[in-house]
Design a protein that fits this description.
Length: 216
C-alpha cells in the first residue's frame, strides 16, 4: 500500500503526550500540597517532600529520554511490604496522627509508581495519586496558589483522559494510510480549547447560581 506506515508512530506520539500530561497532574498536585498550609503545619515533612520532588524530576528525565530506569519488580514488592509494616509504626509512634501517616503512605506509593509506571494499571494509580495529592492540598490550602495549580491539574487531567481514550481507540489497528503529522500539537490545542470552555462555563455558573458566605 503506497504511503502506508506502521501505526506505532502515532501510538508513540500519543504515549509521549500521555506521559507528559500524567506528569503534569502529579506535579500540580505535588506543588499544591507543598505550598499549602499542610507543609507549614507539619503534615508534609521535608524528607517526604524532597524525595517526592526528586522522583518527579527523575520521571521527567525518563519521559524526556535522558534517563533509562529499570527497577526489578522484586525490589518494588519488597519495599512495599516493608512500608506496610512501617505504616502502623509511623501512625502510633512517629507522627501519632492518622492524616500525616496517610500522607506519608500516599507519597511512598507515589514515588514507587512514578519511578516504575509502564503499564495501563500503573498509570491509573498515578491518576488516583495525583487526585489524592490535590485533595489533601484542598484541605489545608487557603491561598491563591491552590487555584493556579488546580487549573494546571484540570488541564493536565483533560489531556490525560483525551490521550487515554485515543490510545484505546487506536489499539488493534495495524496500518494507517498516512502518518499523522503534528498530531500531538493538534491534541494539545484541543485540550486547551476544552479547558477554556470549562473555565467559561464555570465562571458563568459562579455568577448565575445563588451564593452564600457558607457556600463560598
Amino acid at each position: 500500500m503506497a504511503g502506508a506506515a506502521p501505526v506505532g508512530f502515532e501510538e508513540k506520539v500519543i504515549r509521549r503526550f500521555l506521559d507528559i500530561s500524567v506528569l503534569g497532574m502529579l506535579a500540580s498536585g505535588y506543588c499544591a500540597l507543598l505550598l499549602s498550609q499542610g507543609l507549614g503545619a507539619g503534615v508534609l515533612d521535608a524528607p517526604s517532600a524532597a524525595m517526592a520532588g526528586l522522583a518527579l524530576l527523575l520521571r521527567a528525565a525518563i519521559v524526556a529520554g535522558w534517563v533509562k530506569l529499570n527497577i526489578p519488580n522484586s525490589w518494588v514488592t519488597a519495599a512495599t511490604i516493608a512500608y506496610m509494616g512501617f505504616y502502623p509504626f509511623d501512625y502510633f509512634f512517629v507522627t501519632r496522627d492518622f492524616l500525616r501517616a496517610t500522607v506519608h503512605l500516599i507519597f511512598f506509593v507515589a514515588i514507587i509508581k512514578v519511578l516504575t509506571a509502564s503499564r495501563p494499571r500503573d498509570y491509573f494509580f498515578l491518576k488516583i495519586i495525583a487526585f489524592l495529592e490535590l485533595l489533601s492540598a484542598s484541605i489545608f490550602s487557603s491561598s491563591l496558589s491552590f487555584f493556579v495549580f488546580l487549573v494546571i491539574f484540570v488541564l493536565s487531567a483533560i489531556a490525560t483522559f483525551a490521550g487515554t481514550e485515543i490510545l484505546k481507540a487506536s489499539e488493534g489497528r495495524r496500518l494507517v494510510t498516512r502518518v499523522a503529522l503534528g498530531f500531538g500539537r493538534r491534541l494539545a490545542w484541543l485540550t486547551g480549547y476544552s479547558m477554556a470552555a470549562i473555565l467559561v462555563v464555570t465562571l458563568a455558573l459562579f455568577f448565575v447560581l445563588p451564593r452564600t458566605a457558607r457556600a463560598a
